[in-house]
Design a protein that fits this description.
The complex is a heterodimer. By secondary structure, chain A is α+β, with helices and mostly antiparallel strands. Helix content of chain A is 55%, strand content 19%. Classes of the chains: A alpha+beta, B alpha/beta.
């Protein structure tokens, strides 16, 4: 092998190697170019995505912000910043809790460790809160609803994202609706109180009339008797001195006839006892009125519902007495029942009035026939049961499902607000966690069964 | 003869109380006490009563139904309600059907006075036919023009209560009806009201509308059914309004008190209401009566006595007394033709209405309202008015006339 040959071969080899290298370089350049292209695309994609994210953040109506693991705001969308009255630049980097969440609804300071947002990025829980306050830059506040979601990075908790909205309007709507409902209930109560007052006035007016008539009679009778006693005394005096003459006796006898002594002696005791009855009736109704009205007690207190039922029957007498007889069968062994007394009385009153109206409707043609309202109480395990039956028209199947709806009424306009039974339902079921059942047969009558729990359950089980 | 009075209430104790408290009346009144409307009707079918006092709300037959039945059974029965319900939710027709509506508890002296007065006024109207006629009346006709004005005004959304009151005050029939209503315990005003404009204010627009348009306490004078020729309701109304205005002026000039002045005004407006009752309900007798005046030259007082045995003053007084108007007004209406017949001559609305009536009649050439006699100077002296005030009153009359024409 000669040197040349050797060199030539080497040269050939070098050439090949170079070609290979060039090819490789070309290949690598191409790869690089491609990579570059991809990178540019990726950057563009990213930019686009970020733009999208931003416009989403800007477009949503809710406020959205992020906090890092120290509770400092990392970002906030303009809506959120606007709601809080700051610019995003002012907020970002500041401690969120100290800036907008520092004080509770009741005005007391809100410690950060109690804050549900804080717990989101400490223990990784998703939290939903409704009705807390956020504070604005100008020192005013607004009620919020927010969701705080923990944010992870490489499996590690790095903060949280919070979305929130201003619920002031919703709250005021709710408040308005509540107010409306309260006003309506109040109106119904006033209506029934107004009606009751007229009835009670009648119940008092009648005995007042005959008590004062009797008193007038007693006054006049006493004058007559006084005259007679005086004549008798004269006679006695005269008899002590001399024998009494027939003329003297006759005079006294004449007087006794003139004043109608026998009648007076018969009527005076009756006038007194009827007056006493009248006064008893007046004091009974006044007492019942006091018991019925129960001012102020809005909380459950254990009461003897038999007494409450009797008072309600007494005050509403004028509502039913022209159409119905009242029969009661009240279980004397019934323990005290935890009740809101005013609400319970209202339930009994509305049911009685409802029954009296049903009876008046059926009696329309033959008013001489009286119906019957029967009220029973009994002890049924953990429940106190009250049944109120009437012998009225009964409730048609077609409307039975709706009788407890507010505003549902079968009466003509002006004859009731349609609130009576709705109030019964809300008082029994919502306020007392009780049960309300109704059985009815057309032409026979209706029975309402009310069951009230004897033992208070925990607050949580009662709907507000 | 003893008066027979029927008491109806569903409460025995109440009846017993009334029976005992009214025992002092046992020499004048024969009293029956029953527990239900059915019993009351049964009794009324067999016996005649002069007055009934009944409860409104009773089981079975209620007061309204009972009074309706009794009114058709015995038209001359005086109907008084003694009710524990003074609330306005009761049927308003009961207020129309009743002569007087009293509220429980009612002082027995008031009940006694109401009954005594009604019975007394009825006796004063000696003619039995007229007694039944007046007792059975629920409405008085109004002047059609005023009636039309009232209903139109009431239907206007911007009518004021003041305007309505002023319209009522122009019409004697409306004035009487509205005063009956407002003074009834049914509305529970609680004090005596004698001015129709005040009555309108107290009742309020809604109540007035209900009374006028649905209950119909006012009615229209129907000229086409009216049989008496030469009778103009317009002239009668003009005279009533003139006397009312003049009576008020005179009372003011004599320095009387406000309530007295109001009574003069109302009595002036209502003093000839009896003429309307007679002309509308017994036209034949009314025509005969007029003939006595025009053909035989009798004065109205004598002619009425000849035909009816009573004066139109007594007819009006009985009606207004039944309706519970003020005693002063009733007296003035009763005796405005013959003031000397009244008991206790004093300066009263009677004296003032008498003067005003005479002055207006002197001016009027209408036969119906021709002067009965010149002013009785002796009577004026008895009540403490000086005849030399006459010129002054005449001047007032000219003023009042002018005011009325406007």
């Amino acid at each position: 092998m000669s040197e040349i040959e050797h060199l030539t071969r080497r040269c050939e080899r070098e050439k090949r190697a170079r070609k290979q290298a060039e090819a490789l370089l070309e290949q690598k350049s191409l790869d690089l170019y491609k990579l570059n292209q991809e990178l540019a695309q990726l950057a563009a994609d990213l930019a686009e995505r970020e733009g999208l994210m931003r416009s989403i953040l800007e477009a949503v109506g809710d406020g959205i912000f992020g906090v890092d693991e120290n509770g400092c705001t990392t970002f906030i969308n303009p809506v959120g910043a606007k709601m809080l009255g700051w610019t995003p630049e002012e907020i970002i980097g500041c401690n969120h809790h100290q800036m907008v969440h520092h004080t509770k609804l009741d005005g007391s300071p809100y410690p950060a460790h109690e804050c549900p947002i804080y717990s989101a990025f400490k223990d990784g829980k998703v939290n939903y809160e409704d009705g807390e306050l956020f504070w604005r830059a100008d020192g005013s506040s607004f009620p919020v609803e927010y969701v705080s979601t923990p944010l992870y990075k490489h499996g590690e908790l790095k903060g949280a994202v919070i979305t929130f909205s201003d619920i002031a309007e919703r709250k005021s709507h709710e408040k308005e609706q509540n107010m409306l409902e309260i006003q309506l209930r109040h109106a119904q109560k006033l209506e029934s109180i107004g009606q009751l007052a007229a009835g009670i006035a009648h119940e008092i007016n009648t005995p007042t009339q005959f008590v004062s008539d009797n008193t007038r009679f007693l006054h006049e009778s006493f004058e007559d008797l006084g005259q007679f006693i005086e004549a008798c005394n004269h006679l006695l005096e005269a008899a002590g001195k001399a024998p009494v003459s027939a003329g003297q006796l006759g005079k006294v006898k004449e007087l006794s006839e003139e004043i109608d002594l026998d009648y007076l002696l018969e009527e005076i005791p009756k006038a007194i006892s009827q007056s006493q009855d009248g006064l008893k009736r007046i004091s009974k109704i006044v007492r019942a009125m006091k018991e019925f009205s129960h001012p102020g007690t809005e909380e459950k207190t254990p009461i003897d519902i038999n007494v409450a039922i009797q008072s309600t029957i007494d005050v509403s007498r004028n509502e039913w007495k022209y159409h119905a007889n009242m029969v009661t069968d009240l279980d004397p062994d019934l323990p005290l029942v935890p009740c809101i007394p005013g609400e319970f009385n209202q339930v009994i009153l509305n049911t009685i009035v409802n029954g009296a109206h049903a009876i008046a409707d059926i009696a329309g043609d033959s008013p001489e026939e009286m119906g019957t309202i029967t009220i029973r109480t009994c002890w049924e395990g953990d429940w106190a049961k009250v049944t109120i039956s009437d012998t009225g028209t009964g409730i048609p199947e077609s409307v039975r499902a709706r009788i407890f709806d507010p505003f549902f009424t079968t009466k003509e306009v002006g004859k009731g607000t349609g609130q009576g039974l709705a109030i019964v339902y809300s008082a029994v079921v919502d306020k007392h966690s009780g049960r309300l059942d109704v059985e009815s047969e057309i032409g026979k009558g209706t029975t309402f069964t009310i069951r009230l729990p004897l033992y208070s359950k925990t607050e949580g089980q009662q709907s507000g | 003869m003893k008066k027979r009075i029927l008491f109806v209430d569903d409460e025995q104790n109440l009846l017993d109380g009334l029976r005992r408290a009214l025992r002092g009346q046992r020499k004048e009144w024969d009293m029956a006490f029953v527990l239900s409307g059915c019993e009351a009707l049964e009794l009324a079918r067999k016996e005649h009563f002069d007055a009934v006092v009944c409860d409104m709300r009773m089981p079975g037959m209620d007061g309204i139904e009972l009074l309706n039945n009794l009114a058709s059974l015995q038209p001359d029965l005086i109907r008084i309600v003694l009710s524990g319900h003074s609330d306005r939710s009761m049927d308003m027709h009961s207020a129309v059907l009743t002569h007087q509506y009293l509220a429980k508890p009612c002082d027995i002296e008031i009940l006694k006075a109401v009954l005594t007065r009604a019975l007394h006024l009825r006796d004063a109207l000696t003619n039995e036919r007229l007694q039944s006629l007046v007792t059975g009346m629920s409405f008085l006709p109004s002047l059609p023009a005023i009636y039309k004005e009232l209903t139109e005004r009431m239907q206007s959304p911007n009518a004021t209560i003041r305007e309505i009151g002023d319209i009522l005050a122009k019409d004697p029939a409306m004035t009487a009806a509205i005063l009956k209503m407002v003074n009834s315990a049914f509305f529970g005003i609680g004090r005596h009201v004698s001015s129709p404009t005040e009555a309108a204010t107290l009742l309020g627009m809604n109540m007035l509308k209900a009374l006028a348009l649905s209950v119909g306490i006012f009615s229209q004078f129907n000229a086409s059914q009216f049989k008496v020729e030469d009778f103009s309701i317009d002239t009668l109304w003009r005279h009533s309004q003139a006397v009312a205005a003049l009576a008020k002026q005179i009372a003011q000039a004599e320095g009387c008190e406000k309530e007295f002045i109001e009574n003069c005004l109302v009595a002036g407006l209502l003093h000839d209401i009896g003429i309307l009752v007679l002309a509308e309900n017994v036209p034949d007798d009314f025509i005969r009566c007029n003939r006595l005046m025009t053909e035989e030259g009798m004065d109205r007082y004598s002619a009425e006595h000849e035909i009816f045995g009573a004066t139109h003053g007594m007819v009006g007084a009985y009606l207004l007394g039944l309706w519970g108007l003020d005693d002063q007004v009733v007296d003035a209406v009763a005796f405005h033709q013959c003031p000397t017949e009244a008991q206790h001559p004093t300066l009263s609305p009677l004296a003032i209405v008498y003067i005003a009536g005479a002055l207006d009649k002197a001016e009027s050439d209408q036969d119906l309202t021709a002067p009965e006699s010149p002013l009785d100077a002796h009577y004026l002296q008895t009540v403490g008015l000086k005849a030399d005030r006459l010129e002054h009153w005449r001047a007032l009359q000219i003023e009042a006339d002018e005011a009325l024409e406007q």
